[in-house]
Specification:
The structure holds two protein chains of two kinds. Chain A is built from 14 helices and no strands. By secondary structure, chain A is an all-alpha fold. The longest helix of chain B has about 35 residues, at about 205-240. Chain B is globular. The chains are: A mainly alpha, B mainly alpha. The interface of A and B includes residues 152, 250, 273, 287 and 288 of A.
Chain lengths: ~300, ~300
């Protein structure tokens, strides 16, 4: 187990360095020279040079990269060029709304997907199975922004639910209401893959020997499905849900942008389109590191659920 | 080897075998599956329309006419515009045809570039055993990373635009193709003719290209096609976010984003491009599933 975790960390390390390198490069392409900006318009060349030295901008690139790593470790990600607030503060503000949105999506989409997948596997080959699988292919193919646009047009436009921004934390009524449409949008594209994975995995498990044994001792059909097969079928589903977090991340960036949801993804897109390099760098860094952490946790969880994985 | 044995059989046997082969050819199996056949036909039409867009589109996709602004499909003002007009009075149908061209074009380009690189990585990993671990570790790293983040990072470094978009989509296509190519190449590496080629003194280059690559490419090509749907969806999403194609370029994702402002008064301006993306990606996915079933004998019934 410990070896498995160590191995996973070894894989994550180069990714982390790569991500940090991209973050560092982003700050290098800033078209304006930070020293000139800081020194102000009336500064002499000598003053600019002094500030350069003070900031370490006269050092070779690799020293600057090392300095950058040091600053990131201290959570110093620079200041936004537009709001002039520390990037870490901006991220702290947007982090929770993103987590909230993702959890709200998983909370309804995963159970529904598992239920639909189980139903499809149980009724394999019937019209129900075909209908569920057709829906699932459609769910995988639909652009997430179309789902959002349809909901905004028909539900939000009719004044049934708010669709502009986050009206408060999730535990307040207004906050919860404003979360419904974004979570519905993001979840809609997530149900399909989960249903599909559950169906495939369950069909495999239903053919296993222990399922036949359970049937032989007279357990009812649904009992066999839920107690014996589904539990084992869940193992790959859990990992695949974890792996799909990347897919979810993509969807959440689009969803946040559409619904003016104040999350990290929307902030990243805004920072990129407005050339706010320090903010873009920070946001991308946080998204990447957050994604890696989730992956790591899912991986360890998987090894815990299925000890065969860690041993192989 | 079986082929040599078969040629010795009687003419009647040969005929029967040829008939069986034709019956079980991949494309025939697909045609027997109605949704897959419909998807294939639809994609054929879409690809033709995209290639011949200047001849297919009834109007100039960039010619605006403010008098026809937001004219609905079937509206009297713009009877010639089958799908209505957008916020600048441009013909929606022509814009969608050109939009398909841009969206499909960037998808194909990305899958060809990224898939080509991926195939090179996969084949090298299978051929040069020493490279296997480092190359596949690299692929794991790429695979573990959400493709949308490539899009964000590349747009941030290189600026927004179609070039950044295609690069991001290409990078996203590398890892899965590399895995498929490696798998396909590994099974060919065990064939006797690889050993025979080495025995007659062929160099690495010749073995890699003439023996390995030419035997793997059908599999790789099919998986590249499967990747197209995903590439299109990702590209459209990035364009929708304003990180890819920029207005006034007729590209489906950015058209959908452009029409958002008029969602309540003229929903067709953004809905129609969305529907076009959906149908194309759906067709790729339906066809992809059928191809996978046809190629995987385990699933065939």
């Amino acid at each position: 187990m410990a070896r498995h975790i160590a191995h996973r960390l070894m894989i994550s390390l180069p990714v982390l360095l790569g991500v940090l390198l991209i973050g560092f490069l982003l700050l290098q392409v800033v078209p304006t020279d930070p020293a000139t900006v800081l020194a102000g318009p009336t500064a002499t060349a000598a003053e600019v040079a002094a500030i350069r030295q003070q900031l370490g901008l006269d050092q070779p690139l690799w020293v600057q990269f090392a300095n950058y790593l040091g600053r990131v470790l201290q959570l110093d990600l620079g200041r936004s060029m537009i709001s002039n607030r520390p990037v870490s503060e901006e991220i702290a503000l947007t982090f929770w709304p993103t987590v909230e949105l993702m959890l709200a999506c998983l909370v309804w989409a995963v159970p529904l997907g598992i239920a639909l997948g189980t139903l499809a596997a149980r009724r394999r080959g019937t019209l129900i199975d075909r209908a569920i699988m057709a829906l699932s292919v459609m769910g995988v193919s639909v652009p997430v922004f179309w789902v959002g646009l349809l909901l905004i047009q028909h539900v939000g436009g009719a004044g049934l639910l708010p669709f502009q921004g986050r009206n408060g934390p999730i535990w307040t009524g207004a906050g919860l209401l404003s979360l419904i449409l974004p979570a519905a949008t993001l979840g809609a594209v997530f149900v399909g893959p989960v249903a599909r994975m559950t169906r495939t995995s369950l069909l495999e498990t239903l053919g296993a020997d222990y399922v036949r044994t359970a049937r032989a001792k007279g357990a009812s059909d649904w009992r066999v499905t839920i107690h014996h097969a589904l539990r084992n079928a869940m193992i790959p589903v859990v990992t695949l849900v974890g792996l799909q977090i990347g897919f979810l991340l993509g969807g959440s960036i689009v969803t946040e942008t559409m619904f003016a949801w104040p999350g990290v993804g929307r902030m990243a897109v805004g920072a990129i389109t407005s050339s706010d390099f320090p903010l873009a760098q920070g946001a991308i860094l946080v998204l990447a590191v957050g994604f890696m952490m989730v992956n790591l946790i899912v991986d360890v969880l998987y090894a815990y659920l299925d000890p065969r994985i860690a041993r192989s | 080897m079986t082929d040599v044995a078969l040629t010795l059989q009687s003419e009647a046997d040969q005929k029967a075998i040829a008939a069986l082969r034709r019956k079980n050819a991949v494309w025939r199996r697909i045609l027997r599956d109605p949704p897959a056949a419909a998807a294939a036909l639809f994609l054929l039409l879409v690809v033709m329309a995209a290639i011949f867009a200047p001849w297919v589109a009834p109007f100039d996709p960039y010619a605006n006419n403010m008098r026809l602004r937001l004219c609905p499909p079937g509206g009297e003002r713009c009877a010639a515009f089958l799908l209505g007009a957008d916020n600048q009075g441009r013909d929606m149908l022509s814009r969608i045809v050109f939009g398909l061209r841009a969206t499909l074009g960037m998808g194909v380009l990305a899958v060809v570039v990224g898939g080509g690189l991926g195939a090179l990585i996969g084949l090298s990993a299978a051929y040069f055993k020493r490279l296997d671990t480092p190359l596949m570790r690299l692929v794991d790293v790429l695979l573990s990373f959400p493709s949308i983040l490539f899009g964000l990072a590349i747009a941030a470094v290189m600026g927004t635009g179609l070039v950044s978009l295609v690069i991001a989509l290409s990078v996203a296509a590398i890892p899965s193709i590399a895995r498929i190519a490696r798998g396909a190449a590994q099974s060919i590496m065990q064939q006797e003719y690889m050993e025979a080629g080495r025995a007659v003194g062929l160099g690495d280059g010749a073995l890699l290209w003439r023996y390995l690559a030419l035997n793997c490419w059908p599999t790789i090509l099919i998986y590249m096609t499967l990747q197209l749907g995903q590439a299109i969806l990702l590209g459209a999403a990035l364009s929708f976010l304003g990180l890819g194609a920029q207005p006034p370029t007729a590209e489906l994702g950015s058209m959908a984003a452009d029409g958002r402002k008029f969602l309540q008064i003229a929903p067709w301006v953004s809905t129609l491009p969305c529907a076009a993306i959906f149908l194309v990606v759906l067709a790729f996915n339906v066809l992809g599933d059928a191809l996978r079933d046809a190629l995987d004998p385990k699933l065939r019934q």
